[in-house]
Amino acid sequence: MLTISTDLIEKITAHLEAAYPEEGAGFLLGAAGEVREIVALPNAREDEARHNRYLITPEDFLKAEMKAAELGVDLIGVFHSHPDCPNEPSEFDREWAQPFFSYIISRVDNGKAVSHRSWVLMEDRSKYEEEELKIS
Q1: Beta bridge partners of 77
Q2: DSSP line for the chain
Q3: Closest Cα partner for 84 from 104, 103, 110?
Q4: Phi, psi of 36 (to 5 degrees)
Q5: CATH number for the domain formed by residue range(s) 2-135
Q6: What is the pTM of this model?
Q7: Distances in Å between the alpha carbon of 115 and those of 12, 107, 108?
Q8: How confident is the prediction along the chain (136 residues), in pLDDT tens digits per residue?
């Protein structure tokens, strides 16, 4: 189970709605299955691919790792949006994911976030399993 505060889910929502119609993304920081902070990122993917892909750069990763260290927590996952399509991991998502990270995928329809789901990639990288997302 992944737990996240209403305040943080609202920050994720605002970032992803602002990115629409492109995908938005960021990192989840926390510990023991609890998101304690997010790092919203610009989509570094080339312009023509941003509508259905996001790119996190090595610099983005470093920035998130430094923020996590500053807060005394870990980098525990990634959030991103699926504009106008189901918030289930794509094959592209699976190819680029890391096992043990939580992946919150938010469906954004016509500029409004309508649902959030969390997924974990299996260690053998064969598939994702949905994990309970508790917003409190």
Answers
A1: 28, 102
A2: -EEE-HHHHHHHHHHHHHHTTS--EEEEEEETTEEEEEEEE---S-GGGTTT-----HHHHHHHHHHHHHHT-EEEEEEEEEETS-SS--HHHHHH--TT-EEEEEEEETTEEEEEEEEEE-TTSS-EEEE-EEE-
A3: 110
A4: -115, -15
A5: 3.40.140.10
A6: 0.94
A7: 11, 5, 8
A8: 999 999 999 999 999 999 999 999 999 999 999 999 999 998 776 676 666 677 889 999 999 999 999 999 999 999 999 999 999 999 988 888 988 899 999 999 999 999 999 999 999 999 999 999 999 9
Token pair for 135: 């917003």
The residue written with tokens 């525990």 in the block is 76
| Calpha distance 39→112 (Å, rounded) | 20
Tokens of 80: 């991103």
- Euclidean distance between CA atoms 15 and 36, whole angstroms: 17
Residue with the two structure tokens 């509508």: 51
